[in-house]
Each structure stands twice: as C-alpha cells, then as structure tokens.
Amino acid sequence: MQTRTDNLSVSGHKFKVKSYWLDQVADFGKTVDYPVMIICPGGGFTFHSQREEEPIALRFNSLGLHVVVLEYKLIDDEPVFPLALQEMGKTIDWVKQQANLRHIDKSKIILTGFSAGGQVVAAYNGIGTDPKLRHTYSLEQYDDDFAAVILGYPVIDMTVKNSFPIDEKVMYQISTDKTFWQTQAYLNEHSKPTFIWQTRTDELVSVSNSLMYVDKMDQLGLPVEYHLFGSGIHGLALGTYVTKKPGKDKYLNAWSAEWINLAFNWLEMMGYLE
To answer: Which residue ranges does the record assign to the BD-FAE-like domain (predicted)?
Structure first.
C-alpha cells in the first residue's frame, strides 16, 4: 500500500486529501482496477476526527478498496457551504484523473461520510446530482459522477430540534444558504444508492435525521439499506478498541460495530466490489 497527502484547491481555497492506494498483487497474474472510497470524517465542522480517517480507511483497504480522505472546509471566517461541495467535486475529478496510474475503477467511486462529514456527502447526493443545482453551485466543471453513498450517524437536517447544531449561529456559520440546511429535500431521481446506519441512543444527532433521509429515498424509489442499532453513543467510528478513546469504554459497542461488515455485504450485493 502507498500513502500520501496532496494539496488541492477550489476557488483559491486549498484543502488536503490523504490517499491510501492498494498495491497490485503479483499472484493475480493480471492488473486489477479497484473501487475507490472517499471519506469525509466528522467533527462538528470544527475539526476532522482522526478516529474516522485512517482506522476506517485501513479497514476498507482490507476489503479491497482504495481510500481517499477528504479534509473538507471547516467553520472559519466564511461559511462551510457551498465550498465543501466544490471540494468534493474537485476530489472526485482528481481521483478519476489518476485512474490509469492508480488502477482505479472510475465506475465504482463510493462517498462515505460520518456525522458532519455525512452532511457533506448527503448534500452531494442531492444537490450534486441535480443538473440545475450543479450549475448554481459551479459543479458542472468537474468530472464528478460517483456510484454510491455510505452514511454513518449523519447530520441531514440542521433544523431538527435538540439535534446538532443546537445554536442557530452555528447553522449560519455552516451555511447562510438554507438550501444546505435540509439535505434530504434535494434528493432526486439522479441520487445514488445509499447505505446508512445510526444508533437509537445517539445523543448528538437525532435519529430523525437518518429516518427523513431514508423516507425520501424510499419515496423516490431509490435503493437504500438502513440499519438502526439499539444502543451506542454518537461518534462510534468502528465501535472497537481501534477507535476507542483512552479510558472511555462507551466508544465500544460490539453490536453496532457490525455496521462495517453490513456495509461490505451491501457493496458486494450492489455489484460495487466485482
């Protein structure tokens, strides 16, 4: 495996992508083009959680996918959106440009987001697949088609009461454009199949977020698989000792940790791992 960090830019703004590229296996006797997963970690738009970066990346590497971690825009002196959306478009385009060098199957790019990163991915699965909105937010310049989405305890609708973000001021720091406040509203016939999971006891992001997303996918007749686990805190990541915070056993949850095997089975069932 080869790892590296690259700097990309959109609209004069620089951002980083961390790559975990699989090596070819000589024993196969032929070259293999692998799927690519692009991960957006959580962190409440104030940081990028490393617990949802390399540990997740290496786990999916072991399942036969290249992985790229997108360190999207955070809250600062200008809103997160629409710049974070453009960063995603640029990243997908950048990945495709390396198809021959890295042996990438361009038809099998999976976007994966956790918590706040889930909002970035959810927004892209709606706004980024709508022809009119793509023009509105300057996305048509990118070769950014993708195959599927995986969401873990995602922020979907920022207007939900008693759910992140609680403070309206933070909502405006994330986006002054209310289009990005309710990402489920922009799912459309072009949106991609989605695997989504959350825990019923998530104390930060109300479970109604994922439920609204799944309901809209179902209304549109789009492929969706949803797993609502009965227990577990927000931000479980892998739910194992690999991503447990030192001395905090609440980050362990053997049952919810099955999400990654379920996601792998779903990817296989959908034909993304052939």
So the answer is: 30-215
